[in-house]
Amino acid sequence: MGPLFLGGALISAHYTQKFLRESVTTQGRIVALKPVRSSRDNSISFAPVFRFDVPGWHFTTVVSHTSANPPAFKPGEMVTVHYKQGHPDDAVIDSFEQLWLGDWVFGSVGALFTAVGLLVLMYGRRGEPRDIAAANDGSGITRL
Questions:
Q1: Listing from the earlier edge strand, what are the strands of the sheet with 87-93?
Q2: Distance between CA atoms of 7 and 114, rounded to whole angstroms?
Q3: Helix 2-22 and helix 101-123, axial crossing angle in degrees, nearest 10
Q4: d(CA 22, CA 11)
Q5: Where are the domains of the chain?
Q6: Distance from CA of residue 21 to its chain's centroid?
Q7: Which residues face 93 on adjacent strands?
């Protein structure tokens, strides 16, 4: 599983970098914090709602796909925003959590699983390998 997680993280990071290279960058403002309830444990986190000017579209308001508790942003805070030309509804705030946290988590889990798997392969066997053929004394019973 480790290499799969690592591969997924690398692919996702590649697409994040591509998005940043091709995106339009502008300034926006946090206008609200939207409560998001977790279906897993019923906890609440807060997704930033931000607004920015798109030439020819006027202002666009977007709810982030990433939430946190405590909130990572405050209403009124100025933020840098990235969006694909012609797709302002898919805008992302320029912060580590908003852009890279998912990639980092999958990469970390993948690295951990890979390291544990390699350690098990390297040190999982105790003692010397057993030669089954040499343990057979002709009695029909094989000693290990």
A1: 58-63, 44-54, 24-37, 78-84, 87-93
A2: 11
A3: 150
A4: 17
A5: 2-121
A6: 19
A7: 81
pLDDT in tens, 100-110: 878 888 888 88
What's the pLDDT at 98? 82
* Lookup result for tokens 């309830």: 37
Distance in angstroms between the alpha carbons of the first and the last residue of the chain: 33
Cα Dmax for the chain: 91
pLDDT tens string 55-88? 877 889 999 988 989 999 999 999 999 999 888 9
Give the DSSP letter string of 61-118: EEE-S--BSS-SS-TT-EEEEEEETTEEEEEEESSHHHHTHHHHHHHHHHHHHHHHHH
